[in-house]
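ingest -> fold -> write
write: protein_1
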Amino acid sequence: EELFKIPGTNSWMISPSQYATHVSKPTLEFADGALAAVGGGLARMDHALLPEPRIVTMVDAMQADLVADPKYAALFQRIGAAQVELSTDGQFAGEAVLGNFVLDITRAAAGAQMMVSTASSFREPIAPGTITEEAYRAAMPYPNKVLVYTLSGAQVQTLLDYS
């Protein structure tokens, strides 16, 4: 979505989408000390966006403090490992590795034949290597419940048609 003027106002707006996938990047042009033009767009939040070194230093220090704090130490213990990135790419347009992985495990644990979830349940990818409670909670921050129902074929079709 591009920057647009809200009808009937002098206000401009851009929606950065949900869940920090994009950030607003407005462009203001000035001529002779006055605003001459307004523009902008969205910048995708991905690895191509370089981090600000000063902010990285601050975040690293805060992270080290959390790891050292006995109150939060359990969040940084190993709870598993991933051979590949459990990606969220594609989750709003179809399927994503993280969603498929979690739903396959949950479906099997529940003894169900199918499993559905909202795409917004999965917020961040899980990197290859050690998985910590912190990474797990960042990827899936909500305390979702697993509900098991018996549905007819027609009800399943209605559910799939709705999604």
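write: protein_2
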Amino acid sequence: MTSGRSELRIFLVLYLLSLPLQLITTGSIIRQGTTSLVVLTAIHAGVVAALFWTLLANAIVATQVVEDGTLSSLVPMGILALLFFVATTYISLDVALVITDLFGPSDPPQAVHSTPLFVFTSVWPAAAAFLYFVIMAYIIVGVLRERRPMLYYLAAAVCFVLGELAWFLLGKVICKNTNAKIDGRFIATLLETACVGALFMGWRSITEESWDDYNY
């Protein structure tokens, strides 16, 4: 019932693209407050929003509502990913640079807060991840009646939740206890990468036969 090699590749490529952007935007490579950092941060936000759409799209394709690897799957997936990227990137730039008054400025301006931006960068990723795990759990347990692959997805879910906690709640604690050598963002990135790895292993475990027959 599941395959989606092409769709999974798109997700993995976007994740790999997000890693250097995350390194640049959360590190000290570019001076804080510069326009270049604002632009890269906006692009990173757009990539993340698109990334979570491709994650959810992989679950939708796994239900075989459309045939995986075909234009009926890849074209809508690509178009919506592009829309998520453009919308989130534009809103991020609008809030930070005050291009218009539609989405910004934030209050206070230095906080760079915006409800639409919060929805695209926080609410949407959480909702997409939740729906992904629900759909995949239904497919694996309810349809395929497998148990072992579900362990990978449970591990991925745990890593995702821990990564979000490290990012939003435990950053200062981790930084303080490691004498500022490691911060929450570093731990979150490791956990997110472990999550993606577990997702890949879970996907491979339920498509193992077709994977072995695949000719690169």
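write: annotation protein_2
The radius of gyration is 19 Å.
The chain is about 75% helix and 0% strand.
pipeline exit 0
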